[in-house]
Sequence to fold (126 residues):
Amino acid sequence: MPPTRRKSPILDALVQLFYDLPARLGEFEEIPRAEAPPPYDELLAHDHHMTVTVERFHGGPVDVKVLEVKETRTHYARKILLTRRSDGAVVQFGLVRLCLDFVAPSVRREIESQATPLGRVLIDYD
Fold:
């Protein structure tokens, strides 16, 4: 019998911002990086901005298409697609949520403009 995988309440809370029934998005389980096959190990388990990792893997810049936004006074969340600039192919679907208390007003405006992938904004303002 395989060991029980830990589910993440943080992930569940993020998914529930955008999906009344999280199962509509999918089922998730945490696995050790060593069990993730290439290229997913490299794409998902790293210490870099996701934008940089995706751009390196796909050999060029990516653009963001924001599908949905949820915003409160203190938090900003969005459901996005990243597309390869070279041909417009979708290379990533993502959900992200961040606490706006920790970003400068100029960074917040850039994020809320929805024009640039979040990782690129954070790199540019670092």
